[in-house]
Specification:
This protein is of the alpha+beta class. About 25% of the residues lie in helices and about 25% in strands. It has a single domain, classed as 4-Layer Sandwich (Nitrilase/N-carbamoyl-D-aminoacid amidohydrolase).
Length: about 270
């Protein structure tokens, strides 16, 4: 029986308002992670453009569009699965954008699209954020295949909503993807904590590529891209610079773990009806 394994890379970068510059950085980091052995590469949230509101609006694209073509072409050339972090998607006649994650298969085809459900409308310690000013929330929960693994697609602030991850797990997700641009203030206390919690409670791997450093609007992002296993162990993480976290995801181990420690099977849904 063949082994079910996936070598994942969580890309870390500090994106700017310059889309061309970000494309060059993303391609360099994708190629370096593939050279290190990755067959599944994930980019962070808003990797193609990170800046002010006007810059976001000016650089939003349809899906499919130029950015998805760029990612699909790389996936095909390198023969890998690519999670396109997220980009800002504009749709015909829409007044707001979507914060949208995309997945590409090794043949270069767009195989899944997820639109961020939970929007970051909070008063954080450093400043107030109102993502819903420009972004429309998505409505669909999305799983997709990447080789032997079933992925559960999420974006950044979604990680604070465990019900989404439980539904993904119940739909078969074995690897949760969390491309993010976590703020420095919240990230230093909550980023690793939340990622490990989502991994443990859903008995799943978590692949979390992130933005790091100061952005054009003055905000600081936390970085520390990481990969977590179902026990909650951090398998790999990034220091404060461009790079990638790389780890092998052993899905046979995940099967054994879920069988030996069957917390998902031990659920009692009838007791939760409130």
């Amino acid at each position: 029986m063949s082994e079910r394994k996936l070598v994942a890379a969580a890309i870390q970068m500090s994106s700017t308002p310059d889309k061309g510059e970000n494309f060059q950085t993303a391609e360099r980091l994708i190629r370096s992670s593939v050279a290190a052995g990755a067959d599944f590469v994930a980019l962070p949230e808003l990797w193609s453009c990170h800046g002010l509101d006007k810059v976001y609006r000016d650089n939003a694209e349809p899906i499919p569009g130029p950015t998805t073509k760029f990612l699909g072409d790389l996936a095909r050339e390198l023969g890998i699965y690519v999670l396109g972090g997220s980009i800002l998607e504009n749709q015909p006649n829409a007044t707001k954008l979507h914060n949208t994650s995309t997945l590409f298969s090794p043949d270069g085809q767009l195989s899944a699209v997820y639109r961020k459900i939970h929007l970051f409308d909070v008063k954080a310690p450093d400043r107030e954020y109102l993502e819903s000013k420009n972004i429309e929330p998505g409505e669909e929960i999305v799983t997709a295949k990447a080789g032997p693994a079933t992925l559960g697609l999420t974006v950044c602030y979604d990680v604070r909503f465990p019900e989404l991850y439980r539904l993904l797990a119940l739909r078969g997700a074995e690897v949760m993807t969390v491309p993010a641009a976590f703020t420095l203030q919240t990230g230093k206390d909550h980023w690793e904590l939340l990622l490990r919690a989502r991994a443990v409670e859903n008995q799943a791997f978590v692949v979390a590529p992130a933005q790091w450093g100061q952005k054009a609007d003055g905000r600081w992002t936390y970085g520390r891209s990481m990969i977590v296993d179902p026990w909650g162990t951090v398998l790999a993480t990034c220091p404060d610079r461009d790079g990638h976290a790389l780890a092998e995801l052993d899905l046979d181990y995940l099967d054994r773990f879920r069988e030996e420690f069957p917390s998902l099977k031990n659920r009692r849904p009838a007791a939760y009806d409130w």
